[in-house]
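Please predict the structure of the following assembly.
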Amino acid sequence: MNPKEEKVKIITEEFIENDEDANVGKRKKNSKVQRQPRKKQPPTTGPDKMMLEESHLGNQQELVQDEPQTRLLSVTARRGPRSLPPIPSASRTGFAEFSMRERMREKLQAARSKAESALLQEIPTPRPQRLRSPTVKELETEFGTESGKEVGSTQQEDDTQSYARVKFHVSARKIKSKPQVPPGFPSAEEAYNFFTFTFDPEPEEAEEKPKHGDGTHQEEEEGEEEPPTEEGANRMDEEELLHGKDAEDFLLGLDHTADEFLAVRPAHYESVHVRLQREKEMLFIPSRLTVPTYKKLPENVQPRFLEDEGLYIGERPEVARTNQNIMENRLLTQESGRRWFGDDGRILALPNPIKPFPSRPPVFMQEQSIKAELETLYKKAVKYVHRSQHMIGSGDPAGNFQLDIDISGLIFTHHPCFSREHVLAAKLAQLYDQYLARHQRNKAKFLTDKLQALRNAVQTGLNPEKPHQSLDTIQKTINEYKSEIRQTRKLRDAEQERDRTLLKTIIKVWKEMKSLREFQRFTNTPLKLVLRKEKVDQKTDEEAYEAEIQAEISELLEEHTEEYEQKMEEYRTSYQQWKAWKKAQRAKKKKKKQATEEHPEEETEEPYPEEDPVKPSPPEPTDRAAVEQQVRERAAQSRRRPGEPTLLPELSLAGSVTPNDQCPRAEVWRREDVKRRSVYLKVLFNNKEVSRTVSRQLGTDFRVHFGQIFNLQIFNWPESLTLQVYETVGHSSPTLLAEVFLPIPETTIVTGRAPIEEVEFSSNQHVTLDHEGVGSGVPFSFEADGSNQLILMTSGKVSHSVAWAIGENGIPLIPPLSQQNIGFRSALKRADAISSIGTSGVTDMKKLAKWAAESKLDPNDPNNAPLMQLISVATSGESYVPDFFRLEQLQQEFNFVSDEELNRSKRFRLLHLRSQQVPEFRNYKQIPVYDREIMEKVFQDYEKRLRDRNVIETKDHIDTHRAVVAKYLQQVRESVINRFLIAKQHFLLADLVVEEEVPNISILGLNLFKLAEQKRPLRPRRKGRKKVTAQNLSDGDIRLLVNIIRAYDLPVRKPTASKFQQPSRSSRTFREKHAASPDTRSPTHSADYPLGQVLVRPFVEVSFQRTICHTTTAEGPNPSWNEELELPFRAPNGDYSTASLQSVKDVVFINIFDEVLYDVLEDDRERGNGIHTRIERHWLGCVKIPFSTIYFQARIDGTFKIDIPPVLLGYSKEQNMIIERDFDSVRSLSEGSYITLFITIEPQLVPGESVREKFDSQEDEKLLQATEKFQAECALKFPKRQCLATVIDISGKTVFITRYLKPLNPPQELLNIYPNNPQATAELVARYVSLIPFLPDTVSFAGLCDLWSTSDQFLDLLAGDEEEHAVLLCNYFLFLGKKAWLVMGNAIPEGPTAYVLTWEKSHYLIWNPCSGNFYGQFDTFCPLKNVGCLIGPDNIWFNIQQYDSPLRINFDVTKHKLWKSFFSRSLPYPGLSSVQPEELIYQNTDKAAAAELQDRIEKILKEKIMDWRPRHLTRWNRYCTSTLRHFLPLLESSQGEDIEDDHRAELLKQLGDYRFSGFPLHMPYSEVKPLIDAVYSTGVHNIDVPNVEFALAVYIHPYPKNVLSVWIYVASLIRNR
Amino acid sequence: MAAAGPSVFLLMVNGQVESAQFPEFDNLYCKYCFVYGQDWAPTAGLEEGISQITSKSRDACQALVWNFPIDITFKSTNPFGWPQIVLSVYGPDVFGNDVVRGYGAVHVPFSPGRHKRTIPMFVPESTSKLQKFTSWFMGRRPEYTDPKVVAQGEGREARPT
């Protein structure tokens, strides 16, 4: 219990004891009033504060000296027991205190008596009485008895001490103040105090406050008398009092405080009337009276009731009349309130939106019913109806058509498990079935009857009694009858014969079966044939038989005579002819006697027809017997003999099957095998499996009963209905036995009316079994000798019935046939009005219209709109077919602004473009709120780009072809980026969640081992830098660190005063070059340098994104700087996302300059006094490293070859002479200068991963699997080595890599230059390839994997990265007959790259395809650092050697231990066709265009240089320029080699009095910008000597296929004085 | 107005990460950061914060009380991309490794006034039982590459929780 609460309780209790006789009823009455003011107190006041307040208030009515004391006490109260732990009681009840207490007690006694008297006086006042009831209650409820309370109070005593003390003291003070006021009446202050008093705010107390808050107050006033009544409380009270009194005494003399001057006023009160009065002024209360209509309408306007006029008005929502009136009144007083009223003088209202019935099912509150309510209802999944040509209209509610397929069972007519007996039994059953069928039809009987009828007809026809018909017609009909009789008789005979043979075969088979059963001594089938004899009356039968025969005979005779007569007739006519002919013949004979030889021949021919007709006439009488005999024979054969009983075979299953234990083993096996087999059927509808039957075991009788009905709910018109018979043996997978095609039922066949039909099936399965089963598809025989072989196939019958189902309302669920034919039209119709009303069956529009008219449908009611539309369409006769299809019909209603307006909004457009990730706006931040704040220029770039998309702009590109290519590339890039953006949305788990991989044993083991490892704190360990994801970066966070360590072999200055040497050198021939020149020069030059003069003072300047940093100046040709430069990196548009970083195209330029000091002191006399020099810097060379390389490599560390211009005027490579003697052989390998660098990005960025998108491929699936396997294996062994097997072509398809390699012809032009020097040709070709501009894929296809273009694409695009260059070069080499491979590996600075390896007679050469340089295998300066795999035109070899540096590996790919080949004996090379074209076709470049381009570039560059020198005058030395211009073609033809000296000589000759520094730059041409950048990076323009002159020449050498080699010569000239 | 610069509206966020209920864990601390759209920019206050470590209160509710203040002001031109606060709670596991105990995100309330938000927290789950064990054993639970992903819609399908 809270100590305070406790305390309050104690006090109240005490009070009660003293005031037992107080009036309860009175108190309650007033308590309400008392409570009110309390609520006004600020709720936030803390208890401490309240305490203070309390004391303040107390002061006002108390003696002045009390006040400080209370302050003090309140302070103590503040550190009271509220939140602090209880203060130990020991300290309180110390010795000193104890003695004090004794004293106090005495004083208290006195005080108490005094207080008692005061109390007595006070009793009549209402307050104490009021208090009592709650406290009494409290007492009863909480404490029960007094003793219990006592215990509680003593326990809590210590805790409550300090707090209680305060309270108590306050009360004590109050008592003291009492005498000042008249007894029995609260003073004004008291009253105020009472009302404004702040009571304990503790939550615990808050509950009680209403009850006994007053109590506390009361008790405070009367606390004095409490102590004597109770021991426990007493002690405490005494103690407190003591404290209080002490303090009181002590503070007695203190002054008044500010509190005294507080003005106290009564609370402001406003009477209700006044308030109402005022409110009336302020507020408007609309009246509730009905507003007359005229007020609501404009003047002189009659209310108009639209409803009466026949317009539709929806039902208004119900609003109480008074509310409506109030509203109307209010609106009327409002400005422009009238517009709220309609024409009828009522407030405008929408139709009532409330539905008359709830759309949600009512929930019953009874518990049981809830359960029932929640009952799960199974609903069949309803498939979404999609349209196709066979589709059955739109989703009509009754549009679920249903086919019921009843599969009752399956009977095998042959099965591999049939025993011989089964075969016979099946045969027998089949025959019997046939018999039954025949018997049922009884065709023989029918035909006999027919015959009889015909005969009768003939008889009657012959009767002359009915001559009402002309004789002619009678004769005709009789003839017809007769022929019919003949026909029928033949049929009947055939039928009868067939019946008989069938019966015979049945009996024969049965006999065979019986003998078989006897033979094998067991029975397998329960078949039993019983022949029932039906006795016939011998006599009648015989008579009938005889009559029949007679009739037949007579008929036959008749026929014969007829025939005979006919023939006679023929004979006669022919005879006549013959005679005539003979006469003619004789006449001829007379004329020609030679012809007699022919006569006999002709006569022998002629008599035949003559004699033939004569023949039949004689047999007529004899023939009767013959005919009779013939007839009888036939009758005997095909018909039952007269008197013979009719045989009725009856097949029954009454026989017993021999049980297993009496059968031989083979038979038992067979039976068991049968048992293991089960059969089921799959139902395929339109070639899709829709259901299947249960799997049933095969019975011993080879019948399977399914008895299942499948209800197929269909949408598509059934095209095929197939049953597939599957057999399962044991637990093996089911095998398809056969397919049974069921006919699709007629639409008239509905369920219940469909007959069970049997459809036969058979399979071509071959089964041989090792038991009694005969198998199927294999020959077997019933004979012991194996003759008379039979081959039976598995076959059987499925009995089924298919029918259309009938719906609930008795309508067959058949797709209307018309749908098939006029599906299109009806679909449209459906899409229109009919479907919207849902009355699909309505066809008679007229009727509908009539009905609509009769039922007085409101034509304006929107509910009826579709119907009305339909009617109007139908009645007007023209069928309205909408020519559109609206996906979201309601969209228009929700468009709050028209589309045009939306498009006009700049803000919306901006948002839209941004969400489409248009590059210009992708990173647009803070799109302004208002249109007016969006500058029009924001869109300018974008619009320009859109406009230019198809317009080829030549300004930037100059060369039109390149412009086209640039556009094309841009388009490819866009499409690829779009794809990439989509792919980017697909995250893998690994992208989002960092998770430890599943550790394998080795890692676990290693970790365990590490645990055991000794800790070696002094051993330094390299820690990986923390990688930063690009998301939370901003400008300035990323820096590029370039550590420049040292350089080797820089060119050194040449003395300027070497003029006199020139003549000697210029006499040298052009060809003499490198070997000779250093030797001749070196001694002289070294002599030229004065002692102490350095050869060169190089420093390095790094420029990146227009930030430039440079190192200090070092000295000598092999300087060592060892400096770290820091360059800030800014991503484009401040977007540091991976995609954006990948597409940064900036290049780090590392330029090496020579710092040259020139003495500019003109007066020699001042030389002693000061140094006056000018610093010039001369460009020596540069190294360019694209940022993308750094980004992907994370760090670049190595020695790079400095790109030094072929001619560096005033400089030469002098180092040779110095160290030549020692390292001659080594040095000769490395021409050029090198610089050692270390570049990285701080912090390390995580390069984006290539897209994991699986690209589709046209490669063989097997090959793809093999590549995956190959790569996995390789990665397992050497995870760091590059292994490439498939690449992605430009259309985004995976292609096997070897398809790219194929001999391709280089330009013929190049081959013609050195026809006899293959090495030179190779170099030329390599140079040609290197002239094709380099464009890294990763830049062009940001963040995407490498795309490989074929060589023709590459040449068309004229841009590509290492792979394309390498592929082209390799293909050229292959064409030249070299052995060449693609080398995939790592190089510096490119990183993973592709080089070309060639085999030259005795050694390997490594070609850098992008620079055209080649290196020997053992060249230490070869940039290729490791080799991952080699790729040839027909195979891939992965490097499985220990080392991968080209210096240390063997390139012999035939060694399987060193190279793992992709195609091997196990997987032979399948002969993949190449993706490359047959032949490359080269167009010669337009020379005129090149010349034009040359001029334009020169002009642009000159302008640029002038721009870069804004503060200086730029003079151009024309003379020098023309000299340079003549010189550049020479450079091109010599490929920039070794013509320096001649050039120098020439220049010196012409410009002897100038100090000249300059150099030619050589680049492949792609765009103008790189050229400008290159010129800028040399810093030629930085010279600010006043009299400097410049020279600039450009030369473009065109190669086939628009490959351009650009030379730029820039020079600065300073006139020597 | 237009001349004075683009008009923006401001969103001031004051509040605190009061307490958490993690029945199983103790001695947790939390980090918060904000995720907001392109049109938003913080103008004042701290975008990120990391709280003190707190232990469970000894009473029945066992709340982890941080009372860690948040105070940030955003300016924006577009309600799209309304800021979300992302909280991630970390604490030591049995072996004393700091592991993540929960991620959660909630939009900053849209209406002015005092709001109290309770954010359900979750952690990514290991992909397999074995991984679960090893991650527990090695003290490297699966965690998000960036806690901000919990406030983003992308790649939700790839996240097991």
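The interface with chain B takes residues 911, 914, 923-930, 932-933, 985-989, 991-999, 1029, 1031-1032 of chain A (CB under 8 Å). The radius of gyration of chain A is 60 Å.
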